[in-house]
């Protein structure tokens, strides 16, 4: 028969489990071999976090990488916009405006959600989520640009 842990111990168990999972994921990320096509920003982030794996250092690295992804997003958007014409160009502009609204709302939600949780590790989760939103969009635009160019 399995007995549930007393309520006061559940919080400790959850925190320890989260810390263990985070440690494992961090180790897998930091010590995995980089694939050939690793983006330079991802390489920067990995090296930065290796230099300072503290919570403060990790958050600072993620935020710096986020700034780099923002520049990459803007560069890819500008290049893609210049390559497109007609309805594709108009729809890209509309989609990007809506995406920017989504991103701002998601960032506000992320800040509120992780800000309501106890533990410094959630600062890392929040910073990573904010960076990942922009990273995904920047990479998607790069992919679209590559597809567009290769089809010409």
Name the descriptors.
152 residues, mainly alpha
How do the helices and strands line up, and which of them pair or pack?
Blueprint: H1 7-31, H2 40-51, H3 55-83, H4 86-115, H5 121-150
H/E series, N to C? HHHHH
What is the arithmetic mean of pLDDT? 86
Structural class per helix/strand content? mainly alpha
Low-confidence region ranges: none
Largest sheet: none
Give the CA-CA distance, first to last residue: 67 Å
How much strand? under 5%
Radius of gyration, in angstroms, nearest whole number: 20 Å
CA-based shape = elongated
The total count of helices amounts to 5
Annotation, overall tally of beta strands: 0
Question: What is the gist of this entry?
Answer:
With 152 residues, the protein is an all-alpha fold. Helices cover 83% and strands 0% of the residues.
Descriptive overview:
This protein is an all-alpha fold. Helices cover 83% and strands 0% of the residues. The chain is built from five helices and no strands. α4 packs antiparallel against α5. It starts with 6 loop residues before the first helix and ends with a helix.
């Amino acid at each position: 028969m399995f007995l549930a842990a007393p309520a006061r111990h559940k919080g400790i168990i959850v925190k320890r489990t989260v810390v263990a999972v985070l440690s494992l994921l961090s180790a897998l990320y930091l010590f995995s071999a980089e694939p050939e096509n690793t983006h330079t920003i991802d390489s920067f982030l990995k090296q930065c976090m290796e230099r300072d794996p503290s919570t403060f250092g990790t958050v600072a690295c993620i935020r710096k990488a986020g700034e780099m992804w923002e520049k990459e997003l803007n560069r890819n958007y500008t290049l893609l916009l210049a390559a497109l014409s007609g309805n594709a160009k108009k729809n890209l502009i509309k989609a990007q405006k809506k995406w920017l609204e989504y991103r701002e709302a998601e960032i506000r939600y992320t800040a509120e959600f992780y800000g309501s949780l106890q533990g410094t590790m959630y600062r890392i989760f929040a910073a990573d989520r904010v960076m990942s939103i922009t990273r995904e969009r920047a990479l998607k635009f790069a992919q679209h640009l590559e597809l567009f160019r290769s089809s010409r």
